Amino acid sequence: MQILFFCNPYKFTALTPQENILERISEKFKAIDQDPNTHLEGLVWSKPITYWDYIHTDALLNLQIQKTTLPDEMVFIMYHQINELLFKMILWEIDQVAFGTELTAPFFTQKLERISRYFDMLTSSFSIMQDGMEREQYLKFRNTLTPASGFQSAQYRMIEFSSTNIINLIDHRFRETIDRNTPYEHAYNHLYWQAAGKDHTTGKKTTLIRLFEERYKDEFIRSMEKYNVNNLWSRFQELKEEEKTPELKKAMRDYDYTVNVKWVMSHYHAAEKYLETKGKTVEATGGSDWKKYMHPKYQRRIFFPGLWSEDELKNWGEGV
What we know:
Layout: E1 5-7, E2 12-14, H1 17-31, H2 36-45, H3 51-55, H4 57-60, H5 72-98, H6 105-124, H7 126-131, H8 135-141, H9 154-163, H10 184-188, H11 207-226, H12 232-238, H13 246-275, E3 276-277, E4 280-281, H14 290-294, H15 296-299, H16 310-314
Antiparallel strand pairs: 1-2, 3-4
């Protein structure tokens, strides 16, 4: 415990622990031009904190509103809400790296390991979808969800923008036409997931993506600009060669593979159970060709291509 002394010509006076705390509080509020006494007075009238007030339990538990009377729809709703909370946790960690002013390899590695653990939770949680709902119930209540789809998770798209350079999210058929001087809107229109939201015969955008863009397109373009030089891959490339430790490279590769292969394939296999039977494939609620859209060998989405060998890049998503 630190003890402060005030000196006068005759004696030293030690502050008591309580006086020490009050002194530190006073310094804190004076530093921001606030009257410490006002804030201390506020403490007199403040209520004690409770778990349910701090977590907002009542609000959280009232966010699940079913559209049908089928019990397993509640599982479906809560599962996706948990996903969105985990996505928020992931973005929270990413931003600490993306906008950190004094980035070090240990800090970078620690954050990536946290993010990968969150995605490990997301990956393993697909057993809730795969084994935790009756197929007959799902195939009934899903008809009330059209044209909504997990495709429309805006936070997931933010994770993509904040993880890698935009070029790595462009449909591989158009990458040669995109460079650093390409307008953001043009690049946006050639993102890999745009193909899942278009009618391939007419080129017309489906209701799924049209509604998605009405709500989020402007925000997405701002995010593309925000993370253009502040994404995980660009921040890694800024480091000196000696700072790119084996531990950091491993954490980068683990994150890339976990998000773009393991998590995607868990989603894919869960969809298989519900949307494919006796050789027939049911269309996704949003109308996309989910088998081609979801599989990593077709998506070709790789956040950190410079950390993979030619063979690994060539065979991305194969054999899983």
